[in-house]
Amino acid sequence: MPVVTLVCEGDTDVAILSALAEALVPGDVIVDCVQPERPLDQSTQYGELWSGWEGVWRWCERQCQRFGDLAAAMSQPPLAGSQAVVVHIDADVADPDKLNCRKDCPPAQDTVDVLRDVLLQWSKVSAAPPGVVLCIPSKAVEAWVYAALSSRDDLDGDWLECRDEPESLLAGLRGKPKLVRTERQAASRGGGRRWRKVTDAYRAAAPRVAEAWPRVCKVCTQAGRFDRELRAALDSAG
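Above: the chain's sequence. Below: its structure in token form.
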């Protein structure tokens, strides 16, 4: 049975990318998530690498420490035997308060290309090794979710892929369960609104996102790019 391995920022990303992998791979598929990892007791806490883009960075760093680079890691557990290893970060990590390498948007691809190079540097390779698929939604996977679930017929790809905090769009979607809830931040954290993602709601909505995936690829250029590269990796693996 084919195996697709995920390296992601967080649980909501895992929910969406797992559903996409299951939809894109013909027949049955095993989707294995190695980052963020969970302790053996399956508690709600993350493993020692924690989550977020920093967790992905630390995961890449660990593969390089153990095996030299990501290409060598592909032949060793836990990646050996995977038809595709999807390495994900959201494009908003290029923002000034994070990696500070964002480019003007549109086009979304300019920032994504910079971040692809960043991922390769973390992995100590000059190009993605065979079987490795880089997944960088602009500005976040929430743009893909909104493109799938929105009832709007006039979605503009540039507007959606270049919009900061696309999770705010999910907070405004009608229907239940709510994917994103709006919370007030404490004054000590600057006040204002905070978007809290609801993992169980993402899991429930993930099959709908996968069903609407052709629409997402049509609207979001980086979804189309991910689709093409994942399909190519799976085809090459036979």
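Strands lie at 3-7, 30-35, 84-88, 132-135, 180-184, 193-197.
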